[in-house]
Design a protein that fits this description.
- There is one protein chain.
- By secondary structure, this protein is an alpha+beta fold.
- It has a single domain, classed as Electron Transport, Fmn-binding Protein, Chain A (Pnp Oxidase, Chain A).
- The protein contains 5 helices and 9 strands; from the N terminus they run H-E-E-E-E-H-E-H-E-E-E-E-H-H.
- A 7-stranded antiparallel beta sheet has the order 2-1-5-8-9-4-3. It has a two-stranded antiparallel ribbon with strand order 6-7.
- The longest helix is centred in the last third of the chain and has 17 residues.
- The termini are far apart.
Length: about 190
């Protein structure tokens, strides 16, 4: 076994040089619709039909839905859709109906597909690999639709992780934690 000599800052910078589009991931289990925000989806080069590797966070409600239904859709957002990204990133489907204000239809696989975005792809899960924090899924394309002509969709057009970090407001949990820490610090100075 090799010792890990990688500096986190160096490894993080190198890994994040890869263009990472921001996706909204949706799924369905019976009448329950679910969705979250994903930046860890990579296509397998030269796979035919298209296959993708996606890391699904275990703490998200969408994880349980996808692991049981074995289907999901990925949606590419436009750069003017930070509100949609935040809705799917910051809220839990256990507590909020994210689809109540999000235009959508039922896709080929039965999952909800957003109707206001650059386009979407529907997948069926073929295999999974378990890690401590995520389930890595290997999935195969079942359907796709673009809402723009294909020659208008190019790298850099959709929102990506950097776009999200620069444009999204602070996460409400982070704000609450900061406020609690400030209140505690003020009490300590009294």
């Amino acid at each position: 076994m090799f010792e890990n000599l990688a500096e986190h800052q160096v490894a993080d910078k190198l890994a994040n040089c890869v263009y990472k589009p921001a996706w909204v991931m949706t799924s369905r289990l019976g009448a329950q619709l679910s969705g979250n925000f994903v930046v860890s989806a990579l296509p397998l080069p030269n796979s035919d039909p298209l296959k993708l590797v996606v890391c699904v966070t275990k703490r998200d409600f969408t994880h349980a839905v996808i692991m049981e239904s074995r289907v999901f859709a990925l949606h590419l957002l436009r750069r003017d859709q930070i509100d949609v990204a935040v809705r799917f990133a910051y809220q839990s489907g256990r507590e909020v109906d994210k689809f109540a204000t999000t235009p959508h239809k039922t896709g080929h696989t039965g999952v909800p597909v957003l109707t206001d975005c650059l386009g979407y792809m529907e997948f069926e899960v073929l295999e999974t690999f378990d890690t401590a924090t995520h389930t890595v899924t290997l999935a195969e394309i079942r359907n796709a639709e673009a809402y723009l002509p294909l020659d208008q969709i190019e790298q850099g057009l959709p929102g990506n992780e950097e776009w999200f970090r620069k444009n999204a407001p602070p996460h409400p949990r982070a704000v609450a934690a900061q406020q609690a820490a400030q209140a505690q610090a003020q009490q300590g100075h009294r």
